[in-house]
Each structure stands twice: as C-alpha cells, then as structure tokens.
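Exercise (ungraded).
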Amino acid sequence: MNRYLYFMVKIPDKVNNFIGGKYCAPASKKYLKNINPATGEVLASIAASDARDVENAVVCAKKAFPEWCKTTPENRFLILNKLAGLIEEHNDELALIETMDNGKPLWLSKRVDIPRAAANFKFFATGIMHFSQDSHAMANAINYTLRQPLGVVGCISPWNLPLYLFTWKIAPALVAGNCVIAKPSEVTPITASILGELSVKAGLPPGVLNILHGTGKNCGEAIVSHPEIKAISFTGSTRAGKEISAIAAPMFKKISLELGGKNPNIIFADCDWEKMMKVTLQSSFSNQGQICLCGSRILVEDSIYKKFKKEFVARTKLLTVGDPINDKSMQGAIVSEVHFNKILGAIETAKKEGGKILCGGKMVKMKGRCKNGYFIEPTVIEGLGPQCKSNLEEIFGPVVTLQSFRNESEALRLANYSEYGLSATLWTQDINCAQRMATALQAGIVWVNCWLLRDLRTPFGGVKNSGTGREGGWEALRFFTEAKNVCVDFS
Ligand code: NAD
C-alpha cells in the first residue's frame, strides 16, 4: 500500500492475489490495467492470474479445510462478525475506493455498497448459529440429515456492486464451513483485494479465503474447471453463465447462476402516483441503470400514459450527471469504456429501430478532472414494440423504454415477452390484480408498490435466462452444504 490518492485513501500500485493468507504476484508476472472510469486514468495494475494461481490457491484451501470445517458455528460467527465490524470501521475509505474503481456516486457507495457488504457478513454469521438440520421419525427408526460443507468452492462476481455481491457469496460459503477461491470482476477488483487484509485482522485462518484476480477466460474458467472445486456460485452475464454451465455441468458440480435481466416495471392507473414516480426514477437509473434488478422496460396503462411520460421525462432531466465524488451528482460514470460504447451502441440501435428519444441519448462531456470519463445522460425511449432488440436485450445502463398497455392481460403478455425472468415491479392499489399478476409473472422476484426492498432471508434469483438456483437466507446455506441422510433403526 504505497500510493495516496484523494483524501489519503491508499490504493495498492499492484493488486496481487491473496493466497494462503498472503498477497503474492501472479505466476504469469503479468498485470492488467485497472481504470478509474470517471477520469479515464489508470488506478492500479491487477494480477493477470491463470490456472497456475488457481492450483496454488486450491492447494492452500485444501490444506485449511480439515481444520476450518471442524470449527464451531460460534467460532465462525465470531470471526466473520469481526470482519463485518472491520468493514464498517473502514466504511468511508472502502466507499471512496469503490467509487474510484466503479464510477458510482460516492454517497451511494457510502450508504449502500459498503454497509451492505458488512451486513452480508453479519447476516450469515448470525444465520449459521440458527441453521438447523432436519430429522424425520419413523415407527422404530429416526432419520437425521447432516448438512456438511462441500470442501473448496468457487465464487465469481461482477463489477456493478463490487464488494456488495462479492461478500454476498463468500459469507454463506465461509460460515457453512467451506474454503473459498473467489474472483471479483477484473473491472472493479480493489475493495475485494482489501478484504484479504481485513480477513487476516479478523482472525480468518490462512487458506480459508483466497482471492484471485484476472479475466474470466484465464482465471474464471480455470476456477470453474478445477476438479477439486466442488461448487460454483456465479453472478454476471447470461453469456458467461452459459460458458460456465458448459464446463461445470458435465463435471456434476453444484452451480448457482445469477444472470442478466430485462425487468418490467408495470404501472396501473390506480397506483399511488407520487410514490410510484419517485421509486420508478430510482428503479430506472440507480447506479447508472447498472443493477440487474433495474426496471428497464416501463409498461404504463394507456389512460395515464401521456401524464406519466410528461412527468417522468421532466424528472429524468433533473437527474444531475457529474463527478462521482461530488455529493450533488445523482448519476456517476459508466463502469468502463467498453461498457460505455456498448450502451451508446444500444441507443443507436433503438433509433434505427424507430425509437423516439424523449430525453438523454448522448454522452456527457465533463470538464476538469472528469474530462476523459465515461458519462451518459439518463435516457428515455418510446415507440418500440416488444419484439425490438431494445426491449429484448439487456442494455444495463441508464436507458429505459416506455410501452403502453390496455388491460391486465396485455400488461402480462408484454411483461413476460422476454427471455429473461429476474424481477418485476407492479404498481397498483388493487390487491386482487396484484395477486393475479404476481402469480402469473415469469420472474424470480416480484415487488408490489416498491422496488429493491430487500430482506436477506428471502430467496433471491431468476428464471429463464436470468439463471438457476437461489441465493439468500437458508437457500444459500443449503447451496453451500451437502445433505446426507442418516437412518438409525432402534427396533
Ligand atoms: P460478466 O459475465 O462479464 O463477468 C462477471 C464475472 O465473471 C467477472 O468476474 C468475469 O471475470 C467472470 N467471467 C466472465 N466470463 C467467464 C467465464 N467464461 N468463466 C468464468 N468466469 C467468467 O458480467 P459483468 O459484465 O461483470 O456484469 C454484468 C452482468 O451481471 C449483467 O448481465 C447483469 O445483469 C449481471 N448481474 C446479475 C445479477 C443477479 O443477481 N442476477 C447481479 C448483478 C449483475
């Protein structure tokens, strides 16, 4: 740790792998550039790891497993709860690093990303103390089901909520008694790297948590294909999810895939207007629209369509795009140049398809320290039908489309007209309509009159191309354990 950037935050020049409780250079001795998307400047170099680093990490994890899996739930609770406390203690520094790495507004990193990373450890550390195992009594026998840790498991996470999603996987894997090989996105690796240092301070034994950096092709695939890694918990694109399945399924690994989305936000005329408006702005553009749960297809009942369009566009125009470290910036930078170009390309496609840009649609040229950053105006598009690319493909940026519907059945048809099925949001005061829609919507999560209201105990995941398996609560602890039934005859 030797480079001091804004506000005395320390960023390592070289983001190395964390294996067996120590930081070490990758076997390749090569590094990838890590860019601050708000400025276009190089932030750090990150280890370009490959199968050799994965092998080293697996050797350390296997060595640590026999002791770690025998620790009591109380012991794991104490260590991981301490780790949560250390994250809280360093909230402001971690938030600033997250913002510099990802481009998201600093207030968002401070209020959401880093507190949630701490909450993930607290939640699962406490959860393991209450995790019970079933028993089934017969006339003269009893079955009891052991839930045993799997061994060494792999956790691979994306760039949009870096430490938040990284810890969402690692925490249940560790509390269940597994040793972990984890890879954060190569686009936003720094807070994950710092977690290694904090885990040592919390008392996590060497080898229990190993953090590797590098590309999906060279490092991610080496994790997925390693025969000693028994399960893969993955969050990221549907494309990578398919590649991972193709490798892991024939090896009979346990896999949990949390993938892309193209979520409908369905607004009926009888909604609570003010609440719907406020939350719809958030569900459209929070984190520059780079949340898998954002409602990118807004479906509005035709009797309120014009009113909605006018007010929503007016409010969207007020969202300030600016330097992420400025508290007044509602929108920060897009995560990378590649993703910035992808979003602008999707806006061009929408125009070619006949879409009308109601607001936004362009890059934002900043002045000062952000003059080379990647910023895009929040964009609202109308005039495109359900079969258009813009309504079928995930854009994962500050871009939403508007479509109108006449009645409940048309709303349902439009909502389900998607290969994806992650989440859906419904706005209505009619409890019967909400119930009918919630039952028929093809989605893993349905929010009624709210969005992103999260209880960590609930099952989290998608259907169709949005993935397979569920995270959260007992589901996560079940995923990271193997059930073994023992039947004892005492006749
Ligand atoms: P991505 O799939 O490109 O990368 C995600 C992670 O997987 C990275 O760490 C990457 O290095 C790794 N990876 C890529 N290809 C791999 C391969 N073949 N084998 C192993 N690892 C591989 O996704 P991204 O661009 O980082 O993230 C954006 C995507 O994530 C969007 O599609 C978004 O919807 C999705 N996402 C889903 C959820 C959810 O809970 N369903 C949450 C957040 C993001």
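Further reading is listed at the end of the chapter. For now, observe: The chain is about 40% helix and 20% strand. The longest strand covers residues 141-149.
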